[in-house]
């Protein structure tokens, strides 16, 4: 018989393990930390979790997580409705907002095409995207899916959709990341950086 | 203005940060993981947290965390009441149970003496321990506080208490950990290992 704590503590430790990157030792440390020093914060976390799991749905326009029918960005009137940036996740929206001067709207796929896992166009909302493209307001789509095999395939699929609607589709540039050292950059990225070289 | 998610998501991310070792990026990852794929587990975690923060108190005998007046180990009749192992935390109880053949009872300090932080004998339950020693059932105390300056000081303090009650006090051995390489062991530990050498 493996020794254990009390049933309630064991249950708490077990359930903390549903968090990504949390193994048995971290879960134990988290449980004891909350019990020893942060009971109020533990209760607040419990309430936030319950409310979030229940109330957060998806934005009707861009599919990102939102507790309201439209997310905060889709509600902003000051953005350029002619440019739409397509990303894989809500976290990518934040990354683009922080790292670029993009001022259009977003469309969040909540994933990427992956036929082997049974994830087709409708699972990533492309039926909805197609309706939006048909409305004629959008002039350019910036495809900012991840620079992975799946992300690239998804970007190409969407670029074809855009072409069918007579809309310009662009892909974010591949190249060497700023501040990196050439020595440590993989050869595929470096090949892309050479192909995409520009005049100084 | 830093871009953010919706207020509810921002709150969830902020509150996940009360967990030890969880920074802003991990908290964001945890929130999106639960929202995307594990809403049921998120709700279960919320319930466990609420119940644990509310219901878990301390064992009346050994001071470890327990939702009942007495913890599971203190309730076991088959243990040897003549030997008491003193440890700093509930996690240490589990470590001793897993790693030794100790079959006595425990006393959990929930910390160690630390005069600079204002933590004195009563804060780690030594008044309670003294009453228990006075009952005369305990013949030996194994002092298994951490091998740190504070843990050692605490062990010495408790050893003096034991002496006053005419009870034998022992300290777990210092030495080289099994499976380690001498090359990487600090000189202080190695000095202790040489002092504590034994006949083969």
Descriptive report:
- The structure is a homodimer of 200-residue chains.
- With 200 residues, chain A is α/β, with parallel strands linked by helices.
- Chain A has two domains: 7-55, Orthogonal Bundle (Helicase, Ruva Protein, domain 3), CATH 1.10.8.420; 77-199, Dna Topoisomerase Vi A Subunit, Chain: A, domain 2 (3-Layer(aba) Sandwich).
- Chain A has eight helices and six strands, in the order H-H-H-E-E-H-E-H-E-H-E-H-E-H.
- Chain A has helices at 7-16, 24-37, 39-55, 72-75, 90-99, 126-134, 149-164, 187-195; strands at residues 57-58, 65-66, 80-87, 104-108, 140-143, 168-171.
- In chain A, the strands form two sheets. Chain A has a four-stranded parallel β-sheet with strand order 4-3-5-6.
- The longest helix of chain A has 17 residues, at 39-55.
- Chains A and B meet through helix 1, helix 2, helix 3, strand 2 and helix 5 of A and helix 1, helix 2, helix 3, strand 2 and helix 5 of B.
Strand content of chain A: 5-15%
Oligomeric organization of the protein chains = homodimer
Write down the overall mean pLDDT of chain A.
92
Separate helix tally of chain A? 8
Q: Main β-sheet of chain A, in a few words?
A: 4 strands, parallel
The structural class of chain A is alpha/beta
The value of Rg of chain A in angstroms is 22 Å
Report the strand count of chain A.
Answer: 6
Secondary-structure blueprint of this entry?
Two copies of one chain form a homodimer.
Chain A: H1 7-16, H2 24-37, H3 39-55, E1 57-58, E2 65-66, H4 72-75, E3 80-87, H5 90-99, E4 104-108, H6 126-134, E5 140-143, H7 149-164, E6 168-171, H8 187-195
Parallel strand pairs in A: 3-4, 3-5, 5-6
Antiparallel strand pairs in A: 1-2
């Amino acid at each position: 018989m493996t020794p254990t704590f009390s049933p309630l503590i064991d249950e708490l430790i077990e359930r903390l393990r549903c968090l990504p990157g949390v193994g048995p030792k971290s879960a134990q440390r988290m449980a004891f930390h909350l019990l020893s020093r942060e009971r109020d914060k533990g209760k607040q976390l419990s309430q936030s979790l319950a409310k979030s799991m229940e109330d957060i749905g998806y934005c009707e326009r861009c599919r990102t997580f939102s507790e309201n029918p439209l997310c905060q960005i889709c509600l902003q009137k000051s953005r350029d409705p002619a440019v739409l940036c397509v990303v894989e996740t809500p976290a990518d929206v934040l990354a683009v907002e922080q790292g670029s001067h993009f001022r259009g709207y977003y469309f969040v796929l909540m994933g990427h095409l992956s036929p082997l896992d049974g994830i087709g166009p409708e699972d990533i909302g492309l039926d909805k995207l197609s309706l939006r493209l048909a409305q004629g307001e959008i002039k350019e789509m910036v495809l900012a899916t991840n620079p992975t095999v799946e992300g690239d395939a998804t970007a190409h699929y969407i670029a074809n959709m855009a072409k069918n609607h007579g809309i310009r589709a662009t892909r974010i540039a591949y190249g060497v990341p700023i501040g990196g050292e050439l020595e440590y950059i993989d050869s595929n990225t470096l090949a892309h950086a050479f192909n995409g070289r520009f005049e100084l």
